[in-house]
Amino acid sequence: MRLTIAGTGYVGLVAGVCFAHVGHQVTCVDIDEKKVAMLNKGISPIYETDLEEFLQEGLQKGLLSFTTDYQSAYRDPDVIFIGVGTPELPDGSANLSYVASVARQIAESVERDCLVVVKSTVPVGTNDKVEQFIKDSLVHPVRIEVASNPEFLAQGTAVHDMMHAQRIVIGIEDKHSETVLRELYAPFNLPIVAVSRRSAEMTKYASNDFLALKISYMNDLANLCELVGANIEDVALGMSYDGRIGSRFLKAGIGYGGSCFPKDTKALQYLAAQYGYNLRTVTAAVDVNNEQRYKLYRKAANRMITFNGIKVAVLGLAFKAGTDDLRESPAIYNIPLLLEQGAEITAFDPVAEENCKRQYQFSMQYVQTVEDALRGAQVCFIFTDWQEIRDVEPSAFKSLMRTALVYDGRNLFDSRAMLEAGVEYYSIGR
Ligand code: NAD
């Protein structure tokens, strides 16, 4: 099939390379000229395992191309995917201006009957509006159908998640859209859940917000475990054997970040409020997370007389391992607090350093190894669960740091091993 994908971010680009990988002819459109030029050279602007390999394969086979020329890209494909961002507005609602602008560009350009598929995460009812808007604005008399196909990939494992998704949810209002989407996804051989458009839109928020809730629940419990002398990891282990609970997403830590859980929880709260409904469970998840991200900073601030002139090692900048994305990362919330207090920070992250330098003007030193960050430090904060950090021997904290004082937001180390190595070690819920 001939596909055009609007947006080459985490979702659009991964979808583009994966659809090309299974043999579809894919054109990806972005408004960012620099990104498009990089992509046409086979260089991925984001870090994801296998992404660059798939990108180069698609380019070499002639199945994948990138352009800013939306008019030709939207003129006559079989399917157009909308995968642009829907970031949070100050009031918590989803900013739909990027989706609207793609809808306008499609209406201006499309010259052949076409299925438009909304992959971006959008509030319930948006697909209806996109359809109406395109139909009202069409320049050429063609038949447009709109379907919802929310994306469930996780950053850090995005290509794998797209190729081996646990399910494909499609929201359709007509048989033809369903047939086209089933054919499009047939090479992936994955379970397809076909529902109404509104249910598909809601399924995306329902899934993300449930995961956020699960994390906040474990973090809330972890805080209580600390008070009552239980260990959250033992508790999680005991819970995990219950098939009704499941074993994933039971890890306590410094709170969720990234571009999705924070904005999708707020967007659903906003949607509920529009209908006069208070979604209390999701509100609780958001409240717990807002506090959790500062938990270690607060603990350290209670333990230390000052951060002024103190050498702080920050291990991990990305919001999770496997990505260079800094959006809503706990590190990005805590670094300014430490700097304001006069801390002298040395930071390590295996892939997010460039993004951090570009997006933030933090006056801190960046180093290429964990050891270099630890050398001479008086306190260490661990914000990301990178393997490179996990691999450090407890004894290295003791031998390299001036004061072996570690605040671990990811529970990467065994508390006893750290204690035996002579490290004053604080983690979450243990
Ligand atoms: P992103 O911010 O990484 O990328 C969006 C891209 O769209 C940018 O490259 C931008 O230049 C481009 N763009 C903006 N306007 C455009 C236009 N008119 N035409 C073409 N391109 C345009 O976003 P993302 O993280 O890929 O997220 C996209 C959507 O998918 C969001 O709704 C998000 O909630 C959802 N989602 C994201 C993830 C994730 O892990 N990042 C997972 C599932 C769903």
Automatic annotation (TrEMBL):
Substrate binds at K204, F249, L250, K251, A252, G253, G257, K320. Pathway: Nucleotide-sugar biosynthesis; UDP-alpha-D-glucuronate biosynthesis; UDP-alpha-D-glucuronate from UDP-alpha-D-glucose: step 1/1. GO terms for biological process: polysaccharide biosynthetic process; UDP-glucuronate biosynthetic process. Gene3D superfamilies: Cytochrome c1, transmembrane anchor, C-terminal, NAD(P)-binding Rossmann-like Domain. Residues 313-415 form the UDP-glucose/GDP-mannose dehydrogenase C-terminal domain. Keywords: NAD, Oxidoreductase. The active site is at C260 (nucleophile). NAD(+) binds at D30, K35, T86, T121, K263, R327. InterPro entries: 6-PGluconate_DH-like_C_sf, NAD(P)-bd_dom_sf, UDP-Glc/GDP-Man, UDP-Glc/GDP-Man_DH_C, UDP-Glc/GDP-Man_DH_C_sf, UDP-Glc/GDP-Man_DH_dimer, UDP-Glc/GDP-Man_DH_N, UDPglc_DH_bac. It comes from the Bacteria. It catalyses: UDP-alpha-D-glucose + 2 NAD(+) + H2O = UDP-alpha-D-glucuronate + 2 NADH + 3 H(+). SMART domains: UDPG_MGDP_dh_C (SM00984). GO terms for molecular function: NAD binding; UDP-glucose 6-dehydrogenase activity. Its EC number is 1.1.1.22. Belongs to the UDP-glucose/GDP-mannose dehydrogenase family. This is UDP-glucose 6-dehydrogenase.
